[in-house]
Design brief:
Blueprint (H helix, E strand, L loop, with lengths): L28 H22 L8 E5 L5 E11 L8 E7 L8 E4 L3 E7 L4 H11 L2 H11 L8 H10 L7 E4 L2 E4 L15 E4 L6 E2 L2 H10 L8 E6 L2 E7 L4 H12 L14 E10 L2 E11 L6 E3 L2 E3 L8 H16 L4 E2 L5 H21 L6 H8 L3 H10 L3 E4 L2 E4 L3 H11 L16 H4 L1
Parallel strand pairs: 6-8, 14-16
Antiparallel strand pairs: 1-2, 1-5, 2-3, 3-4, 6-7, 8-9, 10-11, 11-12, 12-13, 13-15, 17-18
Helix pairs in contact: 7-8, 8-10, 8-11
Length: about 450
């Protein structure tokens, strides 16, 4: 019987032949590894996209504006108008930073490999607190409630829930476009506006640039309404009565709340005076910041809210506003203190102001001086003087009374650490009558 030749095939053009019914050739290791990686990548991709859209409360790493990844918590999500079923934007809180940096991000900014499951916050807080030392927990608590010390836990949760998402992303004020920091309770008709346009003189706000341009052609104000009580060089301060200028006062509060995380007044402005600081040029007086103050305060508050607008920060205006509030207290013949709670930046500014003022006096003063005498000289409340000197370790308790220890070298070291004092208030340029005397 004749034989039949077995079919053959050629590998890579070589003459090697393999019987059709023989064992298959071994698969190279490199191909196996590539196949495994492909399967693993497919599995990972399916796993990642299977978790979309991310749930509110999810923790994940997010690429920030510095190009690095930082831990965030998803606060809210919204479906994009154009895209697939899983195309969402996410409003995230950077857990390392202040709430003012919260923002909407796109999916590509999130590292889905780092997603952590949503944890019940009450359980998470309990577990976390068990692992923390008492000192660590106190530091976290202080950070968590900064500016909200007067709120109990339930009220704080309600406040954070109500204000968790910034409703306005940017504003235009004069020549500046400013990114906002926090939620502000604008009327409902502005809920769909990511940007608002403010008249820098009357503070009316609009949805569109064309509306602002039309308004500016009609608005005859070139400075805040009210009385100019201070002018030195290009700086002016205007006193605005909330009762006489109710709409301006309310608009100022709407604007300020975009940059202040603690509670502020929105509608009840009748009981307040607003002191608006401006830079003046040939186009008018341009607001750089303000502070408000109750007309009648039983707690000796000489300041309710304080704000320097972001484009004008780090120029000494915050310190100037604080100094100005104390000069008004001196004119009234009273000691004063800021209303609590202070914002994080407000607290830093006050501590710096109290430190510089008190150290300057202690450095120049010869002989002993009491806290009461310091209070009379500066209009700073005795409790604020005491806490400031204690934080600097310049006070001791001996034989039932507080004793100030003013070593010149220690004073110099603290003064250097406190930094420069900012703009000076020229009291000779202040022309002002206290409110009760105005009445």
């Amino acid at each position: 019987m004749g034989s039949i030749d077995a079919p053959t095939f050629t590998q890579n053009g070589s003459d090697a032949t393999v019987a059709a019914d023989g064992p298959p050739p071994p698969v190279p290791d490199s191909i196996i590894m590539t196949m495994e990686k492909t399967l693993e990548a497919d599995s990972s991709r399916k796993r990642r996209f299977g978790m979309l859209p991310l749930e509110v409360g999810t923790r994940v790493m997010c690429r920030w504006r510095d190009g690095k990844y930082h831990p965030v918590k998803v606060i809210e999500r919204r479906k994009m108008h154009i895209g697939g079923v899983n195309d969402y934007e996410y409003y995230v809180h950077y857990t390392e930073f202040n709430r003012r940096l919260d923002e909407w991000v796109k999916l590509e900014q999130l590292d889905l490999e780092s997603v952590e499951a949503v944890v019940d916050e009450k359980v998470e807080d309990k577990v976390t607190s068990l692992k923390m030392t008492r000192h660590q927990k106190r530091k976290i608590d202080e950070t968590h409630v900064e500016g909200h010390e007067e709120l109990d836990a339930a009220s704080l949760r309600e406040h954070e829930e109500f204000t968790k998402v910034k409703n306005i992303a940017t504003i235009e004020l004069g020549r500046y476009e400013i990114e906002t920091w926090y939620f502000s309770p604008f009327p409902p008709e502005y809920n769909d506006s990511l940007k608002l346009y403010f008249c820098e003189f009357c503070l009316n706000f609009m949805k569109r640039k064309e509306q602002l341009q039309r308004h500016m052609r009609k608005c005859d104000l070139k400075h805040p309404p009210g009385d100019e009580i201070y002018r030195s060089g290009t700086l002016s301060m205007f006193e605005v009565d909330g009762k006489k200028n109710k709409v301006y006062g309310q608009n100022l509060c709407y604007l300020a709340k975009l940059f202040l995380d603690h509670k502020t007044l929105y509608y009840d402005v009748d009981l307040f005076l607003f002191y608006v600081l401006c830079e003046c040029d040939d186009r008018g007086c341009h607001m750089v910041g303000y502070f408000s103050k109750e007309k009648h305060s039983e707690e000796s508050y000489n300041l309710a809210c304080i704000l320097t607008l972001p484009p004008y920060q780090r120029k000494g205006y915050g310190k100037f506003l604080i100094a100005f509030s104390y000069e008004l207290s001196k004119k009234e013949g009273k000691v004063g203190t800021p209303e609590r709670p202070l914002s994080d930046l407000g607290l830093l500014s006050y501590r710096g102001y109290w430190t510089r003022v008190l150290l300057d006096i202690l450095k120049k003063h010869k002989g002993n001086i009491s806290i009461k005498e310091l209070s009379d000289m500066t209009a700073i409340k005795a409790e604020d003087i005491l806490t400031t000197l204690q934080s600097l370790e310049l006070i001791q308790y001996r034989k039932g009374q507080h004793v100030i220890c003013a070593d010149p070298k220690v004073l110099d070291r603290h003064l250097k650490a406190a930094g420069r004092g900012g703009l000076e208030v020229d009291v000779s340029k202040l022309i002002w009558t206290p409110y009760k005397e105005q009445g």
